[in-house]
Amino acid sequence: MSKVTWKPGTMIYPVPAAMITCGSEPENYNIITIAWTGTINTAPAMTYISVRKERHSYNLIKESSEFVINLTTEALVHPTDFCGVRSGRDVNKFEVTGLTPEPATHVKAPLIKESPVNIECRVTQVIELGSHDMFMAEVLAVHADEAYFDEKGKFHLDKSRPICYSHGAYFGLGDQLGTFGYSVMKKKTKQQKERKRKTSETFGAPNGPKNKTKRKASSSKKRSGSKTSKKTSYKQKKRPRKVFLFFGILVESL
Ligand SMILES: Cc1cc2nc3c(=O)[nH]c(=O)nc-3n(C[C@H](O)[C@H](O)[C@H](O)COP(=O)(O)O)c2cc1C
Which of 20, 105, 154, 197 is in the most buried spot, having the most CB atoms within 10 Å? Predict the structure, then answer.
């Protein structure tokens, strides 16, 4: 098979298309779509976003040293794109998209209520790289929508129908192809797992947590009086060992 060789560029895809919320007061709340984000450390949980200086969000994040990463879903693909092509300088993106800001627990930037997972972050370092500045950040809390927990307390992010961004287009997740470590799993265990997965697929969706893991209901829920979905908040130490791996690097004009 022959390959075409390109000059240096960024071709690590798919990556997330996350909606990052920033701003410290309702009057300056903003949403920016970011593909250059990912996990960079497990303990302490650390992440990054790379943002061009010319973005309206850049100064908001630089001044407050805080932001929230809101994961996106098929239902959110339209606002995800919109928040990536319009500037908060010109429009109020919460008003235009109809997305709902909810108070966070550790930072002043809001959570997006409609997002299945919100990750509160505090910037620890800003690294100038060239086109973008990389905001390295510590994860302060993770809020996960209770709608996607099963009766055993397992969180099923896939049930929220997450999306990713790949070379200029948005895609859904597609079929599950295996689970962590399945390539070295004993045949019997593999069959049992597969049976279990098929049963849960046939007999219903997750229906709320009943979990061994200690949880603290998000105070944002109380404050907002949310009717639809409740968010569960994990403090860093109590969080189950579940890592959402997203890798992104800098490319093109993003
Ligand atoms: C899918 C997608 C991914 C993007 N990723 C980034 C990114 O990682 N970094 C960045 O600075 N801009 C990125 N952008 C562009 C900004 O989201 C866009 O310029 C936005 O309008 C800036 O909003 P603001 O001026 O309100 O901050 C992306 C846009 C899209 C559509």
Answer: 20
Residue carrying structure tokens 């968010």: 231
Query: What DSSP designation does 24 have?
Result: S
Q: Does the CB atom of residue 57 touch ligand 1 within 6 A?
A: yes
Could you tell me the pTM of the whole model?
A: 0.84
pLDDT tens-place values along the chain, 254 residues long? 899 999 999 999 999 999 999 999 999 999 999 999 999 999 999 999 999 999 999 999 999 999 999 999 999 999 999 999 999 999 999 999 999 999 999 999 999 999 999 999 999 999 999 999 999 999 999 999 999 999 999 999 999 999 999 999 999 999 999 999 999 988 887 788 778 777 776 665 555 554 444 444 343 333 333 344 677 775 544 434 333 333 333 334 67
Bridging pattern class, strands 101-102 and 111-112: antiparallel
**What are the residue ranges spanned by the domains of the chain?**
15-253
Helix (H) or strand (E) holding 231: strand 231-235
| 15-253 belongs to CATH 2.40.128.20 | no
Which ligand 1 atom minimizes the distance to the CA of 248? 8
